[in-house]
Amino acid sequence: MTQPTQGVRRSYGVKLAPYGFLLPAAALFALFFALPIGYAIWLSFHKIEVKGLGLGKGARSEVWAGLENYTAALTDSELGAAALRILGYGAIVVPVMLGLALLFALLLDTERVRARSFSRLAIFLPYAVPGVIAALMWGFLYLPDVSPFFYLLDALGLPQPDLMDGGPLYLAMSNIAVWGGTGFNMIVIYTSLRSLPVEVYEAAKLDGCSELQIALRIKIPMVAPSLVLTFFFSIIATLQVFNEPTTLRPLTNGIPTTWSPLMKVYNDAFTGGNIHAASATAVVLALATFLLSFGLLRASNRRTKQGATR
After folding, report:
1. What pLDDT, in 10s, does the model give residues 73-112?
2. Are residues 84 and 209 in contact, defined by beta-carbon separation less than 8 angstroms?
3. How many CB atoms lie within 10 A of CB 101?
4. How many other β-carbons are positioned within 10 Å of the β-carbon of residue 281?
5. Which of 78, 147, 198, 255 has CB 3.0 to 4.6 Å from 249, enough for a Cys bridge?
């Protein structure tokens, strides 16, 4: 009787072992991810009700608001303007960053490239620089009074553009994102290229294909999943842009406190003191990001299946 019982206990312990290893990660996920999201959703359906002059105990109370905060967020002109600015910003950042990442990955994957390890590290290194430090560094390079580039332009008698206001501001801020994000996307694409079978390249070379033809007709189609992955990462990062405009704002008067949607959330929560409206706006942004990513993913999968059936 003892041996069967011990066997059952051992078998039961083996089955529970994976859940024991997952328990710390699940606890951290629930504590620092799921719980804050749930609390933000709960706040978004409430508001502060002020009685009388708002003085004294019980003058301010938290009451149910329903969809009032969501209605206000969806009809907020500042949030709409911030969303349009982000669309313009993303239209510059995403194509340029992914195009450069793909180009660098293809160049590093060629046989004739020299100093491959150094080049790979040099391209990836800007990604290791914190976003705030990168924004400060580029911000001072954009200022005419301290920038060496403006000194050279002045010495050559060339015009000095104002990169911190108006349309050039989009290019200045996009440059920071492209400089910092190209290396990460390049590593993802380059890793996918290195995993492709060498026999395919050798067969193409025997057929007389050049390096350009191999890149366009073999490499790029075969790393399409990595391109889709980096595209999703870039879209999500663009919708969540916060560091660059927030860091550059003290250096110029051309960046409002609600330049991006996340800046609008921060301004409502910590400057305006309306944490409930900020929570509703954050939930709206999260849902918009999820729907956009899900829609693009479905479209990409549908196109991939259609290509496979052909």
Report:
1. 999 999 999 999 999 999 999 999 999 999 999 999 887 7
2. no
3. 26
4. 26
5. 255
Cα separation, 177 vs 109, in Å, equals 24
Hey, which of 6-10, 99-103, 146-150 has the most confident mean pLDDT?
99-103
Rounded to a whole number of angstroms, the distance between the first and last alpha carbons of the chain is 63
Predicted structure pTM score: 0.85
Q: Which residues pair with 49 in a beta bridge?
A: 61
Dist. CA 50–CA 53, nearest whole Å: 7
Find the mean pLDDT for residues 176-189.
94
Query: 3-state SS of the chain?
Result: CHHHHHHHHHHHHHHHHHHHHHHHHHHHHHHHHHHHHHHHHHHHCEEEEECCCCCCCCCEEEEECCCHHHHHHHCCHHHHHHHHHHHHHHHHHHHHHHHHHHHHHHHHCCCCCCCHHHHHHHHHHHHHCCHHHHHHHHHHHHCCCCCHHHHHHHHCCCCCCCCCCCHHHHHHHHHHHHHHHHHHHHHHHHHHHHCCCHHHHHHHHHCCCCHHHHHHHHHHHHCHHHHHHHHHHHHHHHHCCCHHHHHHHHHCCCCCCCCCHHHHHHHHHHHCCCHHHHHHHHHHHHHHHHHHHHHHHHHHHHHHHHHHHC
Asked if residues 139 and 145 have their Cβ atoms less than 8 Å apart, the reply is: no
Instruction: Report the share of the chain in percent with pLDDT over 90.
Output: 42
| 82: exposed, middle or buried (Cβ count in 10 Å: 0-12, 13-18, 19+) | buried
Note the Cα 101 to chain centre separation in Å. Answer: 15
